[in-house]
Amino acid sequence: MYLDETVYEVIDSFNLGSEIDKIIEDLLFIEPGIKWTTKWYDYEKINGELTSYITLEVPVEQRDQAFEIYETYQEEIEENCRLLEEKHQKYSQIYEKNDDDEWVFIKEVEEFIDSINYLDQVLTFSKIIPTVETLKSIAKILPEIYTKALVLPEVPVEDEVESMKIEHETEDLFTPPQIFEAYFDYHVDLIKISKSIIGILDELTNFNYFINPPDIEPDDAAGMIKEWNNGFRTSNGWGKRLLKLQLLVHQSIIQMKYELEEYL
Known about the structure:
Mean pLDDT: 85
Distance between the termini: 74 Å
CATH superfamily of the largest domain: Protein of unknown function DUF5063
Radius of gyration: 27 Å
CATH topology of the largest domain: Four Helix Bundle (Hemerythrin (Met), subunit A)
Strand order of the largest sheet: 1-3-2
Structural class: alpha+beta
Strand content: 5-15%
Order of helices and strands: EHEEHEEHHHHHHH
CATH class of the largest domain: Mainly Alpha
Shape: elongated
Low-confidence stretches: none
CATH architecture of the largest domain: Up-down Bundle
């Protein structure tokens, strides 16, 4: 049995929960020739509490090169963090610090995104639940989307942000049997409703990117929110079309012989 007699030297240590896997991945990409290694240690504090930590280690003969690479890597991380902090501060209209000192979207942005995501989730079940139930859910969420859009903050964006828009599939949100039944039995045009909803979602550039704030660059977030605001306010933008959609959905529910009070 071969025993590894390599002598290692500690480069750094981390508490559990640190992004050590990401650090190792980065370092291996920078210099795969170094044998970057981690070790787990348990120890008992003075009060008797057991705790653990992880060390980043390299063979002693690779120490000098590893220290130099790691130091440069840390400096780049710190610089990137500084620049990211400045960007968040620049767009203080849409960001704030939470109790954990992390940058998150302000309540108005979060609530708007939640309302759009709710509509998107409703549509994922539109082909498997009764049509009228889907229309009821849509009728409930559309006014909330409109109300939340009214209080979206104005964001001063100096440069045009490159569009990251991903258009939704153009297929209908309902099955052919649902479409035929609604049209021939109730004179309800589900195809028109589908196209209207998809058109609105397509204007709300990548709303699903906003589920996890750290995953989106502040410049991109600011640019997208500016696009949302512009589209909401223009003469034939998504805001006006959302109100028309609300009326269409309301009329469709009534035509399917459901009392208005049942879905309000």
